[in-house]
Automatic annotation (TrEMBL):
<dbReference type="Pfam" id="PF00182">
    <property type="entry name" value="Glyco_hydro_19"/>
</dbReference>
<dbReference type="GO" id="GO:0004568">
    <property type="term" value="F:chitinase activity"/>
</dbReference>
<feature type="disulfide bond">
    <location>
        <begin position="11"/>
        <end position="25"/>
    </location>
</feature>
<feature type="disulfide bond">
    <location>
        <begin position="6"/>
        <end position="18"/>
    </location>
</feature>
<dbReference type="InterPro" id="IPR001002">
    <property type="entry name" value="Chitin-bd_1"/>
</dbReference>
<dbReference type="InterPro" id="IPR036861">
    <property type="entry name" value="Endochitinase-like_sf"/>
</dbReference>
<feature type="disulfide bond">
    <location>
        <begin position="88"/>
        <end position="100"/>
    </location>
</feature>
<dbReference type="GO" id="GO:0008061">
    <property type="term" value="F:chitin binding"/>
</dbReference>
<feature type="domain" description="Chitin-binding type-1">
    <location>
        <begin position="1"/>
        <end position="36"/>
    </location>
</feature>
<keyword id="KW-0147">Chitin-binding</keyword>
<feature type="domain" description="Chitin-binding type-1">
    <location>
        <begin position="63"/>
        <end position="118"/>
    </location>
</feature>
<dbReference type="InterPro" id="IPR023346">
    <property type="entry name" value="Lysozyme-like_dom_sf"/>
</dbReference>
<feature type="disulfide bond">
    <location>
        <begin position="93"/>
        <end position="107"/>
    </location>
</feature>
<dbReference type="GO" id="GO:0006032">
    <property type="term" value="P:chitin catabolic process"/>
</dbReference>
<feature type="disulfide bond">
    <location>
        <begin position="300"/>
        <end position="334"/>
    </location>
</feature>
<dbReference type="InterPro" id="IPR016283">
    <property type="entry name" value="Glyco_hydro_19"/>
</dbReference>
<keyword id="KW-1015">Disulfide bond</keyword>
Length: 334
């Protein structure tokens, strides 16, 4: 992973570095709380029913998303306002957290407007609830075996159970159409050599100390600790270890090996990066190339690692087949 892995309050500069000052958030800013006029923040309805829209326009469940400045969802900041029901489409419900949608989470308990399922005074026909990702449909062990076929049975089961537990803790439910989970697991396979390792292969290349400095935030490397890639999406740099650790309740900055010491934590760090950088909507829209750009811009066109992108794309095609999905019609390259 590289410097494009920003914390929820950071901007991704035109040069793919993370930070909070005008050099990062001004002209050319590619993501986060950009101050450029071309930057747009997604409405709260883009977030899942259980997620908050942070003051910087990110969806998530951490204190950074739901605390001070939170703009929608189950915010813990008392100053938060939610949109009126009129903001929703005619067939949508306004959930108790201020989101528009048609699922039971929107139209069920606490529904504030629209064709609420629990509102007997509403004569409009209720929408058909849309199911969110579940263990039985999205996290399928047989599909997992297809994707990570080189793992032995015991390791595969451990990895799969780690994913399910991590997803539950992170409240991550990829859509049932399986496009998001396919993209996620393709990137995971590429980053971890098919889940054979949770640690970057940096020793043989002598590059393990290349990730000690992250000038885009105040986090400093701890003495004797290294911040090379670890976990399902290769968490790298002190800034990302600190931000991810705060989100999942572990001091990863002080003990980065916690990431590779547990299947659950390794998966949580990958899900954290995926959620914090809003990769889900891109994957759902069949924009695999754009997800690669956020994960590792080093592989994109014009960068030294461009030749590595072909292997990542090949893995994605294989994962889609494992899920029974048709060939992607989107842009696979970045």
């Amino acid at each position: 992973g590289g410097p494009s892995k920003c914390a929820p309050n950071e901007c991704l500069s035109q040069y793919d570095y993370c930070g909070t000052n005008s050099s990062y958030c001004g002209e050319g800013c590619k993501g986060g709380p950009c101050t450029g006029s071309t930057t747009t923040i997604p409405p709260p309805s883009k977030c899942a029913p259980n997620e908050c829209l942070s003051q910087y326009g990110y969806c998530g469940v951490s204190p950074a998303h739901c605390g001070k400045g939170c703009k929608g969802g189950p915010c813990t900041d008392s100053k938060t306002t939610v949109p009126p029901a009129s903001k929703c489409a005619p067939n949508e419900c306004l959930s108790q957290y201020g989101y528009c949608g048609v699922s039971s989470a929107h139209c069920g308990k606490g529904c504030k407007g629209g064709p609420c399922l629990s509102d007997s005074s509403n004569t409009a026909a209720p929408p058909t609830p849309a199911t969110s990702g579940t263990v039985s449909t999205v996290f399928d062990e047989n599909v997992f075996k297809c994707i990570f076929s080189e793992l032995d049975s015991a390791t595969l089961t451990k990895r799969f159970n780690g994913l399910k537990t991590a997803a539950s803790k992170m409240k991550w439910t990829p859509a049932d159409d399986k496009h998001e989970i396919a993209a996620f697991l393709a990137h995971v396979s590429h980053e971890t050599d098919g889940l054979k390792t949770y640690i970057e292969y940096c020793k043989s290349q002598g590059t393990c100390n290349n990730y000690q400095n992250s000038p885009w935030c105040s986090a400093q490397a701890k003495s004797g600790k290294q911040y090379f890639g670890r976990g399902w999406l290769q968490l790298s740099y002190p800034c990302n270890y600190e931000a991810c650790g705060k989100a999942i309740g572990l001091d990863l900055l002080s003990d980065p090996d916690l990431v590779n010491g547990s299947d659950e934590v390794a998966a949580q760090t990958g899900i954290w990066f995926w959620q914090s950088n809003e990769l889900g909507p891109l994957a759902a829209a069949d924009k695999f190339g754009e997800t690669t750009n956020k994960l590792n811009v080093y592989e994109c066109t014009g960068h030294p690692g461009h030749h590595m992108q072909a292997k990542r794309i090949s893995t994605y095609k294989t994962v889609r087949k494992c899920y029974g999905l048709p060939e992607s019609t989107g842009n696979l390259e970045c």
